[in-house]
Amino acid sequence: MTLSIAPLIYIVIFVAVIVLVEGVYLTVFGKSISLNNRISRRLTLLEKNSNREQVLAQLRKEMNQHMNARNIPLYSILAKKAQRANIAFSPIQLIGIMGAVSVFAFLLLTVGTGAAFGVRVLVAIGMGVGGVYVWVNGKAKKRMSLMEEQLPDAIDLMVRSLRVGNPFPTAVSIVSKEIPDPLGTEFGVISDETAYGANMPDSLKAFAERMDSQDLRFLAVAVTIQAQSGGNLAEILDGLSKVVRARFKLFRKVRAITAEAKWSGMFLSAFPILALVMINMIKPDYYDGVKETPVFVPAALVVCAFLVINVIFMKIMVNIKV
Known about the structure:
- It is a single chain.
- This protein has helices at residues 6-29, 41-48, 52-64, 76-85, 91-112, 117-163, 168-178, 183-195, 200-211, 214-229, 233-282, 296-318.
- By secondary structure, it is mainly alpha-helical.
- It has one domain.
- Helix 8 (183-195) packs antiparallel against helix 9 and helix 9 (200-211) runs antiparallel to helix 10 (214-229).
């Protein structure tokens, strides 16, 4: 029995592409861009450049640049996720990185495989675009998850600040200094915008819509109502904190209950691909008897279409809305 390592080479190259993108990202923007950093990126930038206005302009550009580039062909697929992930690369730079890692993947495929030139080109482009998409999607999910965890603590900190007599803009400023990223930088930008004359409720609404977060919309609505009608904002936010925590616990409970169904869906979606990889590794000539027949390519396309439909329906079935 002859084992083929070609499928493993493709997998390793794809992983190498994702690792390369992450390495370039951290090299260009430094450790402050990482969500694991305890000091928010805004404070790190202020240490390097004391000009608060320039730092605010840079951060606002990074936060809005991707949705402003939705008219670029095919980039609209990535724009929303890149905005949620707050990718500091500009859209043009991100497209350039797709091209660069595609060339990198092509070189590795040329060295490590004996595939035809056209196949290597197509696979390299797929790895370049797909690798960047997977990387951005992972960044967006991690950032949104951290934001959901941080929000109740941030609201509690605002409540304590208001109860000792600080105005709401000061409470937001305290949150920006005490809470790490992603909320630290986001609330810092809101604080700076307010200092330069922006309306606090409007800044919170824009933040909530940019992140497409229901909890942030609750916060924006609470602050807007208090600004228009008056009332004890500390008590309102205290109640909101309890609601957000209860929602967070409910979401965690739902995730735990549906974990088995989601993993089953992932397994059933991935199994045909894994089976194909194993067949090509264990018996590379398995399809030699039929691949020259006229129905092989149409049949393969039909199987691929059914596989895509399977992945879509599995995702729909396990995506439980609360």
